[in-house]
Amino acid sequence: MEGAKEDFLRRFGDDYGYPNALKNIDEMRSTEFKRLEGLAYLDHAGATLYSEAQLEAIFRDLSTKVYGNPHSQSDSSQATSDVISEARQQVLTYFNASPKDYKCLFTSGVTGALKLVGETFPWSSESCYMYTLENHNSVLGIREYALDLGATVLAVDIEEVEHLRSPKQSIHILKHSTQRRSEANSPREIQNGKCSGNSYNLFAFPSECNFSGKKFPLELVNIIKGYAGSRIGDSLQCRGSWLVLIDAAKGCATEPPDLARYPADFVTCSFYKMFGYPTGLGVLIVRNEAARLLNKKYFSGGTVSASIADIDFVKKRENIEQLFEDGTVSFLDIASIRHGFHIINRLTVLSIARHTASLATYTRNKMLELKHGNGLKLCLLYGRTVEKANPSNVGPTITFNLKRSDGSWFGYREVEKLASLSSIQLRTGCFCNPGACAKFLGLSHLDLLSNLEDGHVCWDDADVLHGKPTGAVRISFGYMSTFEDAEVSRLLLSTS
Ligand SMILES: *Cc1c(COP(=O)(O)O)cnc(C)c1O
C-alpha cells in the first residue's frame, strides 16, 4: 500500500487532508474516530459519521446548561430560544441565504421538509409539478399532492450542452416522461403538457444525485424561474410562476447551494448527512415570498396565536417559523448542531469537497482500469461524466456493477457479502432513487413491473433478474475518509 499511497499523494496531495487544521487526517482518524479502527466505512451518502470530539462537546453542553421548553418565559426557555435562533442563523449562513429573504424552518429531516412543501403548495388543476428523473423517492412523493388536485406531473431528463454561451440555451430538457399512477392496480395515464392559466408550478431537482453523484447545474434555478409563461421543451406550456426546490440532502455535505447566486424557493437538508449527529433533524430553507404562498392547514401547539376549543375559530401565527413548525421543535438536537458546524467550518467545506473528491477520483480511475485476464472490464461505473470525472460536476460517490470474465453480472448482494467479510461497509440497491436506477441500469417500465411481479422489492436479495441487475453498488466518502479506506475497497474489487 505504501507505493500506492505515494502515487496517490503525488497526484492528489494538494487536495487530500486538511493541512491547515489542528490535526492532520490520520491524527483526526486515530483520535476522533477510534471506533473505525479495522473497518472501512464507505456509506457516507447513506449517513456520514459524527466525531467522538463532537459528541463530547454536545455532552458537555447539554450536561452543563439548562434548556427549557422554548414556549415558556423562564431563563431556561430563553436559553433554548437563543440557541435555536443562533442555529437558524448558522444554517442560513451555510447556504449564503440572507435572513432578509429566507427563513430556516426545522423539520424531522429532508423527507419531513419535502412533505411540508407537498402538503402546503398552492396546487391547482392548472399547476405543473416537474422534477428531474434522478430524484429521491421523497421528492417523487410530492406528486401525490399535486395529482390529487388535478395538477400535471412531469419527470424530465436534463441534458447539459456545454460550449453554448447563453445559459438559457445550455440546458435542454430532453423528454417528458408520461407519469403513471396506479389506482386499484391499474396504471392510469396522466396527461401531460396541458398546464395553463395563472398558477403556481414547482420544479424539483437534487443538487447532487444520491445514486450517481452527479451534480446538477444550479443555474437551473434561474433558468426555470425565467420560464414564466413560456415553452419548456417541445410540448409543455405553463403560464404562471415557477418555484424551484433543491433537494440538497446529498449535496450539502460538500457543496451547499449558494442561495445568493441561485435564489431557489425551497432547499432541504438533513444534519446526519453533513456531520452524522443528530439524526431526525433537517431544515426547509424557504424564501419569504414562497412561504407566503403556502397553505398551512393543520394547527397545533406552537403554531396558533389563539383558538377556541368548541367552535371553528383559530388565529394562526404570522411569524413564518412559528406557523410552520408544529409542536415543540427538537430543541436539544437543534442545540447540538453548532458542534457539527464547528467541525465543518474549521476544516472548511471547500477543503472537505477537495479531500473527498481526491479519494473519489482516485478510486474511480483505478476501478476503470480493472480488467479480467481476457481484457474484459470488471467495473461498469454509472454517471455521465465519469470518464473525465471532475469534482465540480460529480460528488464523492461511485456507483457501479461488476461483471464476470464471461460477461455475466456479478450480483450486488454478492459484492456486499464479500465486502462485509473484509469489514467494508457499503451500500447496494437503488438508494431510494428509482428514476436514476432505471436510467443507468437501462430498466424499462416493463422490466420494473415484471421484476415486481417476480416478487422483487426494494432491499431484497434479487440482485440480478432476467439477466439485468436490479440495483448497483455504491461507495461514498465523507470528510474523515482516508486513502486507506479507498485503497481497501479497490483491493477488494481487484480480487473479486
Ligand atoms: C438522504 C436523502 C434524502 C432523505 O433524507 P431524510 O433526511 O432521510 O429524509 C432525500 N434526498 C436525498 C438526495 C438524500 O440523499
Biggest sheet features: 8 strands, mixed
What percentage of residues falls in helices of 4 or more residues? 25-40%
Q: What's the mean pLDDT score?
A: 89
Which distinct ligands sit in these coordinates? pyridoxal-5'-phosphate
- The level 1 CATH classification of the largest domain is Alpha Beta
Through-space gap between termini: 18 Å
Tell how many strands the DSSP assignment holds.
Answer: 23
Fold-level CATH name of the largest domain: Aspartate Aminotransferase, domain 2
- Provide the low-confidence segments as ranges: 162-169, 175-193
CATH homology superfamily of the largest domain:
Type I PLP-dependent aspartate aminotransferase-like (Major domain)
Q: DSSP strand (E) fraction?
A: 15-25%
Shape: globular
Total of helices? 17
The CATH architecture category of the largest domain equals: 3-Layer(aba) Sandwich
Radius of gyration: 24 Å
Structure classification = alpha+beta
Domain Aminotransferase class V: 41-176, 242-487
Protein name: Molybdenum cofactor sulfurase
Organism: Dendrobium catenatum
InterPro entries: Aminotrans_V_dom, PyrdxlP-dep_Trfase, PyrdxlP-dep_Trfase_major
